[in-house]
Design brief:
Blueprint (H helix, E strand, L loop, with lengths): L1 E2 L5 H23 L6 H21 L5 E4 L3 E8 L3 E14 L5 E3 L2 E7 L2 E8 L2 E3 L3 E12 L9 H7 L1 E16 L3 E16 L4 E11 L1
Helix pairs in contact: 1-2
Length: 210
């Protein structure tokens, strides 16, 4: 098993290039020997072909993660200070590999002025080779989680509440059960909820760490 997650990409490439060069050198040496062992030679060539395939076709590629807009699924509010909001959070993961990409269980967190006021689980799943998959969940926000904040009454009266959603996905791409690459994605969205218009806008950004 070769695990290149977290390793220096340049170092990993140099190591595999050395393997190719050594395999080629040994193969050429065997060709010059009259008593070369045929079975060993064939095995060596197979190893060389496998490494070449890794570089050209099967090399694990970094998954692409796109944070979609956080959407307002439902809202109920009233006076005095009554609020029930459902937000839909969705991330699209694009797996460009010839093997599967599996991500672990995770959680979406919704924060209001720096304090977490709601959360929802994301269930682990596996994305097949060369497929896209929408990872999403619904988060419920209740007024009783917001009222303790000193700014809530002012924001509520102004008709606009600002939230931040954050999601972290830990995953691993596997090719032929031999080569693996680990990736962690961090998705953050700034969400503005407008009470009178009953809609929401969001600006999202994603960071990937290997």
């Amino acid at each position: 098993m070769v695990d290149i997650g977290g390793a220096n990409p340049t170092s990993s490439l140099q190591t595999l290039k050395i393997i190719i060069e050594l395999d080629c050198a040994v193969a050429m040496d065997l060709l010059t020997q009259d008593n070369a062992d045929t079975g060993y030679y064939e095995t060596l060539i197979q190893d060389l072909v496998a490494v070449v395939l890794f570089f050209t076709i099967l090399k694990p590629k970094n998954p692409k993660v796109i944070t979609q807009a956080v959407t307002l699924e439902s809202i109920r509010w009233g006076i005095p200070l009554q609020l029930n909001v459902s937000l839909g959070v969705e991330v699209t993961v694009d797996n460009p590999n010839y093997g599967s990409f599996k991500y672990e269980n995770s959680t979406v967190y919704i924060s209001y002025r720096g304090s977490i006021v709601a959360e929802a689980p994301i269930t682990e799943d596996t994305i097949p080779a060369h497929r896209k998959h929408d990872v999403g969940t619904t988060v419920e926000i209740m007024a009783d989680k917001l009222i303790p904040d000193a700014h809530f009454r002012e924001d509520f009266a102004a008709g606009c509440l600002n939230f931040t959603s954050s999601t972290t996905l830990h995953g691993k791409a596997t090719v032929l059960k031999l080569f693996k690459i680990k990736a962690t994605t961090y998705s953050i969205c700034d969400v503005s909820l407008f009470l009178i218009a009953q809609n929401a806008t969001s600006v999202c950004r994603t960071k990937i760490k290997y």
